[in-house]
Amino acid sequence: MADVDLTGVEKRYGDTRALGPVDLHVEDGEFFTLVGPSGCGKTTTLRLVAGFEDPTVGEVSIGGRSMVGVPPEKRDVGVVPQQYALFPHMSVRENVGYALNFRPPPGGDADARVDELLDLVGLSGLGDRDPDDLSGGQRQRVALARALAPSPELLLLDEPMSALDARLRERLRREVRRIQRELGVTTIYVTHDQEEALAVSDRLAVMNDGRIEQVGTPREVYDAPATRFTAAFVGENNLFDGEVLELVDASSVRTATDVQGDGGDRPSLARVALDRLDATVTVATDAAVGERVAFSVRPESFTLDSEAGPAPTNALAGRVRETEFLGTATRLTLDCGEATLVVRVAADATPDGEVTVTFPPEAARPL
Amino acid sequence: MSRASGAFERVGLTRERRVRLLATLAVGAFLTAMLYYPVASVLVEAVTVEGAPSLDPLVTVLTDPFYTGAFGSALADPSAIPAGLAAWAANGFSWPGFGLVGFTAWQALLSTVASVALGLPGAYVLARFEFRGRETVRSLTAVPFVLPSIMVAVGFVATFGIDGTLSDAFAAIGLPRFSLLFTLELVVLAHAFYNAPLVVRIVSAAAERLDTRTLEVARASGAPRWRAAWDVLVPQLLPALGTAALLTFVFTFQSFAIVLALGGLQLATVEVWVFDLVQSFDLQEAAALATVEAVVSLSLTYAYLRYEARQARGGSGRTLDRLRFGAASARTRLAVGAYGVVTLVVFALPLVSMVAESVVGPNGFTLRYYEFLVARQTTAASFQTQPLTAVRNSLLFGFGTLALAVPLGVTVSLLTARGGRLVQVGGTLAFVPFAVSGVVLGLGLLQSFVFGTVLFGHRIVLTGAFAIVAAHAVGAYPFVTRSVSPLLARLDPALPEVARAAGASRLRALWDVELPLVMGGVLAGAAFAFAISIGEFDATVILAEGSESYTMPVAVERYLTERSLGPPSAMGTVLLVVTAASFVVIDRLGGAFDG
User: Fold this and answer.
1) B10/A52 touch (CB, cutoff 8 Å), yes or no
2) Is the CB of residue A154 less than 8 Å away from at least one CB of chain B?
3) Which chain B residue shows the shortest CA-CA distance from A99?
4) Which one, B382, B400, B462, B534, has least CB within 10 Å?
């Protein structure tokens, strides 16, 4: 097992910068996810760790050992690429056992090791099949078993679920997570699916345009997006811009719950001038009057006016443009002047026409 | 977390890059020695006089009306152009003639038109109809690539000559005998024999890649059937047709054996004339003329490669539905039937006639021509062309070619697999053999290595046999590359990466993963290389001149000048058997040449 460090890593192709500079630390035994839209540099990062490409600048180290000049075959990593890249001319067994040619298992019994792995991924008895004869989910398991066979210190997964349908994807990601926990192998997982990233990771890095936007636990990233990009990319969000009118004594404002601040600090509240109204929201502790601020509010933080208390703070009026029934909730798209607002309300709500929605001050996340 | 990460800037080469560099250098060295240098030595001859740079040889050729016709006269004496134009106008704008080069281009153009005319209906039938044997017909369109040109010439003599099958048939029903030998029509027809299948292959392959959803969208937009086809299908097929036509023009512009055997000197093309000049030891004029030819062929080949590169490959959409042939209208079936008869006459009859000619003597069935192939060996004087020697040489050179062309072709495939600008340049250079005529290459190898050359203070002399193998390998390796590259391109690049992450070195990953997966292409390429070596005539005939290194095709040509068609037919049949066997291997293993 090993931790992974990227220090000042950049990858350029000619004049275009594909990645970086990036600094990243992945803990030993951690399930770490790189998530972002296509072209954000997440796969490049993975390839640099695997050694398939060399950084233009900077250094990758695995287990404290610098990987400069170390080819992939000397890195002790297991790789599950997109579409799996199973060796089509080898049986399932030969695929899984391939790395054991180079890294014999302790005790030297490669056959037993292959059986153990097939068992681990639930494919016992399918060892003699051709990869072509397997279903998508089975192929994915073979790819995973193949990567894990030599007990690598690091497991790298590049969009391993992208070729599967939604239901299978959910089941297999839980299974990958179970196996990872069982083996405790440090894992870097690449996906463009933010929901998947939230579901499986110990920690994740949100990437955009070759840079890391934010690193944190799924909860941190979801609850406290640090940048506009993260706020918009991870989960659904409403973004607001405004100007601080006055700083407000936090205790004077009625809040539904206490905000979970860092180190128990009471967050600062301020009255902020928005497009058509003033709102009282959480702002950064160093915010000053007259400053431009931005914040985000999750759709589920809104309440339909009829359900709110008698003197609502932060009330926004809008016209319902779209209503989508999602099963567990109803998603409304509201036209509020120029802006569009997305809110989630109780599943049984079917509002129409003009509505007013409110959000508590602490639901606003300063960006 | 310092920003001063420049300290980590990589220096030096990884092992993988070193291996790539070494392989590139090895390929470059071989091609330089056996292709670029010999060819350049011919071209240099064309631009030097007694060692000093001079354009005189080129100017001589370009201004000689014999070579360039009216163009040459104009170049030779530009002041006479107005008078010449006036005279031309006064003559009612008669065809001015553009000399040997002009004629060569003219016959190539006619051949291209004929090949397209003969090939397009075939492409239509293959793309449109489903019928028994369709796959076989499709496979057979690859046959011309492995058929020795001189053997085809024998087949055409056996069909259209004075003693040929058609003439015999005429005589049998009381009509006068006739011969089409030494007519432009027959040369053009033989070129169509060679290149119409190419047209069929390239165009029908493109048609099979068509995404018919575009057609459906056009129809749904309100276009009637013919209009939808015109607006959507034709533009998608034109690039393929252009590719096929361009390739046909390049091939027929350089045609040698067919013209030599069926047209003789009165229908000489540039290539035949270069050969004739070499034989009369007028090497400088040969070089100058060859240079003119090479410039034309190289530019056209370059155009072809650029054009081809721009064409989209493989769609993921729905492909054309084929109609069951039995369900077609009676008129369509009649037309296709008539086309079938024409193709039988053009494609099958020459081969059948040759085989028949080899076993039919004046008194009916005979094996004496085959006996001759063996018997002459023992009785012939040493200066005569001995059949068994030819067979032995052909096989020897064939295996020698395999040993060189297969590693070379596979290496080029591997080196060019990853794209990039440098690779593009390298890839284009690697296809120079397509553009350089065999006669020029043969002449170059003869002048440089066989006559001896001085490199780095050492005098290097190669035997004719080795030079022949080198020439064959140079001509054959692009076919290996073309068989392997498409398979390599389809491989998931993650495959070798996974192998490497598993602990395999780059070369081990190549051996374990990539090579097994492209093995079909390697073997098909090998069969191609063997067949091409067995049938190669142009370079061999020059390099084998006056030596013991003659091959079967050279022997066929020498026997062809004798009275009886029997011996060349017998040897041609042997050639046919060998190349047919190669073809079966290619076909089974999926060697492709779809442009």
Assistant:
1) no
2) no
3) B502
4) B382
Tell whether the model's pLDDT for residue B149 goes beyond 70: yes
- pLDDT tens digit string along A105-132? 988 899 999 999 999 999 998 999 999 8
Domain tally for chain A? 2
Q: How far is B500 from chain A (nearest CA, A)?
A: 5
Q: At what angle do helices B387-416 and B464-490 cross, to 10 degrees?
A: 40
Asked if the model's pLDDT at residue A279 lies above 50, the reply is yes
Token pair 């037993």 in the structure block, residue:
A112
> Beta B129-130 vs B323-324: how paired, if at all?
parallel
DSSP per-residue string spanning A82-106: TT----TTS-HHHHHHGGGGTSPPT
Query: What is the domain extent for residue A246?
Result: 238-366
Kindly list the residues from chain B whose CB atom is less than 8 angstroms away from the CB atom of residue A94: none
- Per CB-CB distance under 8 Å, the chain B contacts of A190 are none
What number is the ipTM of this complex?
0.79
Lowest mean pLDDT among A123-137, A344-358, B389-403: A344-358
- Select from A200, A233, A266 the last residue of a domain: A233
pTM score over 0.90:
no
d(C-alpha A138, C-alpha A143), whole Å: 9
**Contact between A73 and B5 using a beta-carbon 8 Å cutoff:** no
pLDDT band at B1 (very low <50, low <70, confident <90, very high): very low
CB of A9 within 8 Å of any CB in chain B? yes
| Selection from A290, A300, A264, A295 nearest residue A280 by Cα | A295
With a cut of 60, say whether residue A184 has pLDDT above it: yes
Residue pair A87/B495 in contact by the 8 Å Cβ criterion: yes
Confirm whether B68 is domain-assigned. yes
B378 & B439 share domain: yes
Q: Which of A211, A233, A255 corresponds to the end of one domain?
A: A233
